[in-house]
Amino acid sequence: MGDMSQIRNIVILTGAGISAESGIETFRSAGGLWENHRVEDVATPEAFARDPNLVLRFYDMRREAIQDKQPNPAHFALAKLEERWPGKLLLVTQNVDDLHERSGSRRVLHMHGEHLNAWCTSCDVRSRWTGPLFDRPPCSVCSARSLRPDVVWFGEMPYRMGEIYAALREADLFVSIGTSGAVYPAAGFVQNAVELGAQTLELNLERSQGSHMFHESRLGPASQVVPHWVGEMLR
Ligand code: NAD
């Protein structure tokens, strides 16, 4: 890595790996399978059209499961960095859990949506939702029974890409944490950052598909490598 004293603006991308030690399975550790369905087959608009009960049940279980999980030291370290960092810091997450918020991070951009939101496809309003959707509850705004998980499925456009690319253009450092680098467009952020002249750092359990694109990769569990890196940044 280059001269760290020149770093002002930071963009951090997190993936399922940062929540793994909180007991939320990553894609890979789940074997990409759920009750004999490939995850891709329950996480597409086509799957929802074909078998809405299956998809709603899948997300109801995951929505319920995240609510008794707790943030781990990696989430807390990023919240501390945000609080103390003198420059700009944007936390972009592919995760749909709320562990960043629960550890105290304030500026979190959920590019793939949130488990604890429902999206009404009738009135287009998104609202906080902690219970099941399987029984087709009415939207609290328009009463239509048209709620779906507010999660970006394969083939759908991730949220707030304009804001993310704007932050990348200003970034002096791009850090990717616990993501396999397999899901685009997030997997392409490192290349954007490099082309724009930023330093790039990967923190991951093991080398990922995109590891070779980073100036530096540090391997290890997020609960250890993330607090260590944050300690260096705040030294
Ligand atoms: P992924 O499952 O494809 O990859 C997980 C990555 O985390 C791997 O590179 C793995 O090496 C790493 N990892 C595993 N344990 C780790 C640990 N203890 N410390 C550090 N790294 C660890 O996940 P992805 O790249 O985020 O992409 C999959 C998609 O699935 C995303 O779009 C995401 O929205 C979704 N997803 C979200 C959650 C969640 O919200 N917690 C969980 C599973 C999947």
What does this protein look like?
- There is one protein chain.
- With 235 residues, the chain is of the alpha/beta class.
- The longest helix is centred in the first third of the chain and has 15 residues, at 52-66.
- Helices cover 31% and strands 20% of the residues.
- A hairpin with a 5-residue loop joins strand 6 and strand 7 (126-128).
- The protein is globular.
- Strands 5-4-1-9-10-11 form a 6-stranded parallel sheet, sandwiched between helices. A 3-stranded antiparallel sheet has the order 7-6-8. Strands 2-3 form a two-stranded antiparallel sheet.
SSE order and pairing:
Blueprint: E1 10-14, H1 17-20, E2 33-34, E3 37-38, H2 39-42, H3 45-50, H4 52-66, H5 73-84, E4 89-93, H6 99-102, E5 108-110, E6 113-120, E7 126-128, E8 147-151, H7 161-170, E9 173-177, H8 189-195, E10 199-204, E11 216-219, H9 222-233
Parallel strand pairs: 1-4, 1-9, 4-5, 9-10, 10-11
Antiparallel strand pairs: 2-3, 6-7, 6-8
Helix pairs in contact: 5-9
The site of nicotinamide-adenine-dinucleotide has 26 residues, from helix 1.
